[in-house]
């Protein structure tokens, strides 16, 4: 994200190779890390590297970076829609067809490649779940409403506290 904002989506080429190596070492030795961060960084670095080699504009490089990150996520976790949404939220900052279409295509192709190697089974299998009853659904709706009102209260409280801090006579 920092490279997108401050460095026109230019990520050093060494990140493409060093990030997966460091992730493999840290995860393989039992470190408390997940695969999603390194996958995003590696895919994004590869997309940025392609953009730098092809002499693209900063906007095109950002799209390639996001496409690489989304492809990495989709290939690893088998979740192309989530990968596209994550790339848009964290890297693209826009909902334009010129950037969304390449990112979505990259995620779709990565998912197809994943399925050809590993099959279409979900990464995280879910046990059989029973359908909730009508009273349970009603309770979920009430609980959701209560949590929604509570979140509104917390948000307002945060704004009130920020305003109070602004009024303090110290810098």
Account of the protein in words:
With 171 residues, this protein is mainly alpha-helical. The chain has 2 domains: 117 residues, no CATH class; 42 residues. The protein is built from 7 helices and no strands. Helix 2 packs antiparallel against helix 3, helix 3 runs antiparallel to helix 4 and helix 4 packs parallel to helix 6. The longest helix has 33 residues. The chain is extended and about 50 Å long.
Summarize the structure.
The protein is mainly α and 171 residues long. It is built from seven helices and no strands.
- Going by helix content, strand content and strand pairing, the class is mainly alpha
Radius of gyration over all CA atoms, rounded: 21 Å
Terminus-to-terminus distance:
30 Å
Structural shape: extended
Number of domains as seen in the coordinates: 2
Number of strands: 0
Q: Give the helix proportion (percent range).
A: over 70%
Unreliable sequence segments: none
Largest sheet: none
Subunit arrangement of the protein: single chain
Order of helices and strands: HHHHHHH
Beta strand %: under 5%
Mean pLDDT: 85
Number of helices: 7
């Amino acid at each position: 994200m920092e490279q997108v904002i401050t460095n026109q989506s230019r990520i050093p080429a060494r990140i493409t190779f060093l990030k997966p190596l460091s992730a493999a070492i840290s995860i393989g030795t039992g470190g408390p890390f997940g695969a999603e961060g390194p996958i995003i960084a590696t895919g994004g670095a590869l997309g940025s590297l392609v953009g730098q080699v092809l002499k693209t504009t900063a906007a095109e490089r950002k799209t390639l970076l996001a496409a690489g990150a989304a492809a990495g996520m989709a290939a690893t976790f088998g979740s192309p829609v989530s990968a596209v949404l994550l790339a848009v939220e964290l890297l693209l900052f826009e909902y334009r067809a010129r950037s969304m279409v390449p990112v979505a295509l990259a995620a779709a192709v990565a998912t197809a490649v994943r399925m050809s190697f590993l099959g279409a089974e979900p990464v995280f299998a879910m046990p059989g779940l029973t359908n909730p009853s009508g009273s349970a659904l009603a309770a979920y709706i009430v609980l959701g409403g209560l949590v929604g009102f509570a979140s509104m209260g917390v948000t307002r409280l945060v704004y009130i506290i920020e305003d109070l801090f602004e009024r303090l006579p110290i810098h």
